Amino acid sequence: MNVRLAYGQGHLAVELPDGLTTIIEPAHTPGLADERAAVMAALEKPIAARPLREWVKPGRRVCIVFTDITRATPNERLIPWLLDYLAAVPREDVTLLNAVGTHRPNTRAELEQMLTPAVVQNYRVLNHEGENASELVALGTTRDGTPALLNRHFTGADVRIVTGFIEPHFFAGFSGGPKGIIPGVAGLQTIMSNHGAKNLGDPNATFGVTKGNPIWEEMRDIALRAGPSFLLNVTLNEGRQITGVFAGDLVAAHQRGCEFVRRSAMQEIAAPFDMVVTTNSGYPLDQNLYQGVKGMSAGARVVKPGGTLLLACECREGVPANGSFDRILRSAASPAEVLALLATPGFSRPEQWQAQLQALIQRQARVLLYSSLSDDIVRAAHLTPCHDIGAAVRELLPRSPNGTRIAVLPQGPLTIPYLGCGNARS
């Protein structure tokens, strides 16, 4: 059986055993016939909110939050359409804020690629700076008493518009909605509190769960402290075509979108598999290994304890090198030591949440990585290099008992498998 795995900006063809392999992928949803018209209609008839044009009055400052280069949001379409809708607003009253969270700032060339050169030339476009105290405003505290810091351009705007797209998320339930605000435009210490080990260890901090999820609920609560925000989220299919537009109230519109995604992305599975082949849904999400933990997490949901997980993740930007995630992994000799380090009283580092989740997955299964990284870098991340996924599967088959079952997630975390007795609620 030949399977095409999403990888980089293309696909990776892999030959897997017939009769033993189950393909798990999202139910296909066709793209909208007229994407622009659907967006404009949603802005005029939003969910649980007044039409966006009624939010805009003369002299009101507008802040538009957009997702960074690691996300598949079709910013190059959404943002120009949104600005067309807001054409009556003077350009000097509009700020476009890149929701980088803890990620690196995007270059001007990348911003032009994401938003179009015309938008970057004619509007003020800023990268959020989560470690710059002068750019942050405190709105109370998180549940553990840490200052809840948000970007001052966002909090100081008269009209706040949060854009993005909705997909399953491995510990926030779903992307989009409040997640565009925290972590998107939140202070680093706020993000570290929200993504802390205790919250990540909660069983409700997982794919497809928002209600009762301490991470998502705190994101929502802090986001609402800034005042009303207008949401413009979309859903996408595997070709980045827009399949749905969810605009209006930050929470109500997001929940409507989450239910739409759930119907295609959440796939029930009767029993776990001996081997799971997964991806990180290709570019832009598979740019580095840090993001690749999402693909691991999707596959780990249905791999047997002691099984094997094979991840295809291009990692054109490395781990990324010299980031906190990389340093945490290199500072320990094994995944078990990573977890012990993170459990050390007083230990707190940016990006530790990704290291924690990877180590927990490795406690459950052996993880092989097919990527553009050198073998030395892969091993330093406590993973096993793989240069041919099909060959690796065939090599592992004789070591497994009769009846070996293999699952493949060609779109990685765009599909969320769950066991029949598992949790797929909102």
Give a topology summary:
Layout: E1 2-7, E2 10-15, E3 21-23, H1 35-44, E4 62-67, H2 75-85, E5 94-99, H3 108-115, H4 117-122, E6 124-127, E7 136-141, E8 147-151, H5 152-155, E9 159-165, E10 168-169, E11 173-174, H6 188-194, H7 197-200, H8 214-225, E12 230-236, E13 242-249, H9 250-265, E14 266-269, E15 273-279, H10 289-300, E16 303-312, H11 324-330, H12 335-342, H13 352-364, E17 365-370, H14 375-380, E18 384-385, H15 389-396, E19 406-409, E20 416-419
Parallel strand pairs: 3-19, 4-5, 4-9, 5-6, 9-12, 14-20, 15-16, 15-19, 16-17, 17-18
Antiparallel strand pairs: 1-2, 7-8, 10-11, 12-13
Helix pairs in contact: 1-2, 10-13, 12-13
Question: How confident is the prediction overall: mean pLDDT?
Answer: 94
| Order of strands across the main sheet | 3-19-15-16-17-18
Shape: globular
Rg on CA atoms, Å: 21 Å
User: Spans of 5+ residues with little confidence (pLDDT < 50)?
Assistant: 422-426
- Total number of beta strands: 20
Strand content of the residues, in percent? 15-25%
Give the termini separation. 35 Å
Number of helical regions: 15
Strand pairing plus helix content: what structural class? alpha/beta
Largest sheet: 6 strands, parallel
- Amount of helix: 25-40%
